[in-house]
Amino acid sequence: MRYHTPESFEDASAIAAGAEGVTRYLAGGTDILVQMRSDIVTPDDLIDIKHIVGVKEIARSDDGGWRIGAAVAGAELGEHDGVGADWPGVVEAMELVGSTQVQGRATLTGNLCNASPAADSVPAMIAAGATVSVTGPDGPRKIAVEDVPTGPGQISLVRGEVVTAVNLPARGPGGGDAYLRFTPRTEMDIAVVGCGISLTRDGDTITSARVALGAVAPTALLVEAAAAALVGGTLDDGALDALAAAAEAACNPIDDKRGTIRFRTHVAGVLARRVAKIAYDRAGGAK
Amino acid sequence: MALDEYTEQTGGPADEIRSEFTKVGTSPDRPDGIDKVTGRARFGADAYAPGMLHGVIVRSPHAHARIVSIDTSRAEAAPGVKAVVTRADFADGQSGEDWAVMENVMAGDTALYDGHAVAALAATSLLEARDAARLIEVEYQILPHVTDVDEAMKDGAPVIREGAADNSVPAGMHPNVVRYHSSGHGDVDQGFAEADLVIEDHFVTAATHQGYIEPHACLATMGGDGRAELWCCTQGHWNVQKLCAATVGIEQSKLRVTASEIGGGFGGKTTVFVEPVALALSRKANKPVKVVMTRSEVFRASGPTASTSMDVKIGMKKDGTMTAARGVFRCQGGAFPGAPMEFTSMCAFAPYALKHVSQIGYDVMTNRPKQAAYRAPGSPMAAFAVESVVDELCNKLGLDPIEVRLKNASRMGTKASFGPTWDRIGLVETLEEAKAHPHFSAPLAPGAGRGISCGFWFNHGGETSVTMAMSEDGSAQLMVGTPDIGGSRASMALMAAEELGIPYENVRVTVADTASLGYNEVSHGSRVTYASGLATIQAARDTVRKLCARAAAKWGIDEDAVTWQDGCAVPSGPNAGDFDPLPIDRICRVMGRTGGPIVGHYEATPEGAGVSFATHIVDAEVDRETGATKVTRYTVVQDAGKAIHPTYVEGQFQGGAAQGIGWALNEEYVYGPDGRLQNAGFLDYRIPVASDLPMIDTVIVEVPNPGHPYGVRGVGETSICPPLAAIANAVSNAAGVRMRQLPMRPSRVLEALEDQD
Amino acid sequence: MSKIHVTTTVNGDATEFLCDPRETLLDVLRDRLSLTGAKEGCGTGDCGACSVTVDGRLISSCLMLAAEAEGKEIGTVEGIATGEELHPLQRKFIEHAALQCGVCTPGILVAVKNLLERDPDPTEQQVRYWLAGNLCRCTGYDKIIRAVMDAAAEMRGAA
């Protein structure tokens, strides 16, 4: 294995583009090192992006959103007041990933690019309408988070492309988001189901919403029917029932050691209700 | 403790039980404390030797497969590789358990489970060894497999090994049923006819793992002449010596085994897995070889406990009198005989004085790793089934769960369900303490449930050697042979200091290697504080006799005329003479000139281990929308006989309860249809984390064991006997539906709730 | 496969080592620097026994390559005591019997020391969640939590 420490994303991209065999980027390393230790994959080239200027930065973007560098660790994100004030759901989702120790290293970008269907931060980012900035042989581009994973362990980036940052949009007035997952233990677990919801309110009425589910399909899902169940209403029981039904209908899970189809589908509906209430309260000004 | 090591405890020396202490019963800092909080304590993987190689084991990816061929040539040619071994590099001709251990340590013709070792190699670095291991080519012929106990007993199930059954098995059973147990007394049918209510239910528990945080690790050095040194984390290094000698083919005394600090065992480190492999590699390479299991290897290829399928039937009168009980316990022990079904059977109804009782056990082989002991092997599952039925009877008859247990409780003089008549036991006392505990009468939150359960474990004596050597300054060096798995050096030092009348700090306790002390049985069966403790007391009393003799010689009086008080020899009475007390340091300072070194001994097999009972109280909440369960309050009440170091006794109580919570709620071996283990890691084998648990309250009951000079009963194992049932009862009462299968993972609870609606 | 030269600081001491690019920080601490206080309980970030700090941040050393340690400040359990004087957490762990086998203890001490540096007055619940990645199989965590709370109180001068 060759270990590279490029000082720019262009160099990182060039190394990856020119490499043959298995190439991986290293930010937090909390997935790739597990895969190496477990003999799942040993890269021929490992490209550590942490020597690139700005990868650890969290900055306000011109549109009032946030630009979160590709190597910002979960703990660093959690300690940042600004992001947490605007997007508490995204931050709490990221903070659910692994232990305190894992939080010291794991990143939003890594959680996304590892492409686990159960990644906690991904439904929250999708709900938030987040995008990633990518540099590659054909120049920079932005991709919606929901378009990055294409299947378990698979992403839409082409060889030589590298994620440079996660972009969260401006929160704007009357907005709130939340994320919950279900796990058998209180911590140190992989989501059996995850649900992220972001919505905006005008008074008591929901004016826009995005609902995303994790661990119920090969990739995290943006469930438009579930969002539609919320928009225009005031989160009454009927809306919650419609939301849960839409969430359940969107599920296409597998039976595995972590959960059955029946269980995952049922819990998706339960979580959607619970998350919607939190997001709604936050949008209404609750802390 | 395996059954062949179980001996009925017939009672110990009839000495008076001491009840006045100055040191025993206090909780001083442990002697190995500083080493363990500074990182310098040396565990299994912390040993290094000059020229050391790293060993890696190649394991079968198949549940059941004939090994057609193994090609090691590419691995042998790989960089850094110094030795490759297969079964041909071990001794042959073993029989009995030695044969089973050999076959388990390195497969012969057939890989019997996912993870079964088939080859190993050693290289100059771990990375080189891991790279080279991938170059060993094994050709398998895949055979049909079975990993479920009930399936393995059915007609047509794949046979793990023809002819494995012993002559206890009734005719007509499937060849996978390899041992059978039946015990009890009375006429259960008559008893059931006398009952007002009879409940019979089927219960299932999953295989669980001890889950010690330290993987198996060892460092072996062996020459072509068979002389060898082995450093390893083990609960019993004499057993390691015996099993390694049998598998690598040397005389036992050629191998010196040193027990490292041990990072948890709970029964799982009572046998060998990697140690013979490291020795064989070292012999072949003529260099020291270290082998450390990965966590995945620990799960796949060490010794989890048995899974069970159980049927329990109990009859009760309206007043709560139990009229009869019957249990059938099917335990799968993996690819070799040895599932603890006798213990499951014998412990099942032990808390109850029953006129009519019958228990039957089956030991069933499957394509899973060879089970090993896990904390009171077999007992927690039995308690789960039995105490669940008792709880259901109480609910249906509207009776108080503690009163019913008190009414039927085993006491001194009643006949145990498995035969003997009880000596002095403390079950009733634990029930009374539980009844009086504020937890039992505390109001429950809406939707919460409370569960009660009793539990029982035998405890064990076993071969024990202890030596106490006095130093010239009057401090003492105590050599024990039972690895310290939970603070036992502190307990030994307390007992030695108590007898000698010297400060606790003046006793240094060492876990001696196999070349430095007589044979010691494994640290298991909750035997350490009992047996090594008894041995320590007796070795100290032997030392005191010798100290007194020196004083007698100095004073020119009879040895019988000298007694020992507060660390001094004193004349036994006014008639013995008028001499000033002679302190221990003054006797020891001149010991070279007064008869030579002063050393006390104890070598024997004490048989007075007192059984112990516990009663647990648990509160649990159930999220009815998701099936998630939370244990909100937990109280352990257990008979310790006499708590030598109460804080560590509490620790044993709490640890057993916590492991029980994991077993009850989330831990399980999950096998796929391909017979491979699906969750060989701490991420998906879910032991409780700190945020899962409440504080665990403890009550130490002290009903002295007549077989120990201070009344000690083992405490390590009984604490895991009640939790499965207590938690199941709490969850069932919270959910309003009886949970009959463990673990009670959320999906299972939710399905039970949905099926109820 | 050529080795990588790394210059770093471990427990305040300037340290250099050569490592294979695949070696983890835990491998190097234990096998090259003789700092065996950090343990490998799983190798996959699930048990916390290998906990160390890197530039003051708590991490699992099995999940970091040794090569990444270039220019970093590493803190291990061996650096917690000052000479013969134990850190209050170390004393309280012994006093409360917050360890039985002791193999998880180094990782837990590194983790809670890092917590108390950030928050000298955590709740029991915060301690439990902070330590969720540090598995202990012996104690049921009860005495660990008590030791941490007691040490924190003493360090705040509130004991």
Percent of residues of chain B in beta strands?
A: 15-25%
Any idea what the shape of chain C is? globular
Number of domains of chain B: 3
The number of distinct helices of chain B, counting runs of at least 4 residues, comes to 20
Low-confidence stretches of chain C: none
Assembly state? heterotrimer
- What's the main sheet of chain B like? 7 strands, mixed
State the CATH superfamily name of the largest domain in chain B: Aldehyde oxidase/xanthine dehydrogenase, a/b hammerhead
Let me know the average pLDDT of chain B: 96
Provide the residue-averaged pLDDT of chain C: 97
Approximate shape of chain B: globular
Can you lay out the helices and strands and say which pair or pack?
The complex is a heterotrimer of chains A (287), B (757) and C (159).
Chain A: E1 2-4, H1 9-18, E2 23-26, H2 32-37, E3 45-48, E4 58-60, E5 66-69, H3 74-79, H4 81-86, H5 88-95, H6 100-103, H7 108-113, H8 121-128, E6 131-135, E7 141-144, E8 149-151, E9 154-155, E10 162-168, E11 175-182, E12 193-202, E13 205-214, E14 221-222, H9 224-230, H10 237-250, H11 261-283
Parallel strand pairs in A: 1-3, 2-3
Antiparallel strand pairs in A: 4-5, 5-10, 6-7, 6-10, 8-9, 11-12, 12-13, 13-14
Chain B: H1 33-38, E1 53-59, E2 65-71, H2 73-76, E3 81-85, H3 96-105, E4 110-111, E5 117-123, H4 126-133, E6 137-142, H5 149-152, E7 177-185, H6 188-194, E8 197-205, E9 217-222, E10 228-232, H7 237-248, E11 255-259, H8 275-285, E12 289-292, H9 295-301, E13 307-316, E14 322-332, H10 341-348, E15 357-364, H11 379-397, H12 401-408, H13 427-436, H14 438-441, E16 448-457, E17 464-470, E18 476-480, H15 488-500, E19 507-511, H16 528-555, E20 562-565, E21 568-571, E22 582-583, H17 584-589, E23 599-604, E24 612-622, E25 629-639, H18 646-665, E26 696-701, H19 723-735, H20 746-756
Parallel strand pairs in B: 1-12, 10-11, 14-15, 18-19, 25-26
Antiparallel strand pairs in B: 1-5, 2-4, 2-6, 3-5, 7-15, 8-13, 9-10, 9-12, 13-14, 16-24, 17-18, 17-23, 20-21, 21-22, 24-25
Helix pairs in contact in B: 7-8, 10-11, 11-19, 15-16, 18-19
Chain C: E1 4-10, E2 13-19, H1 25-32, E3 51-54, E4 57-60, E5 73-75, H2 88-95, H3 105-118, H4 124-130, H5 142-155
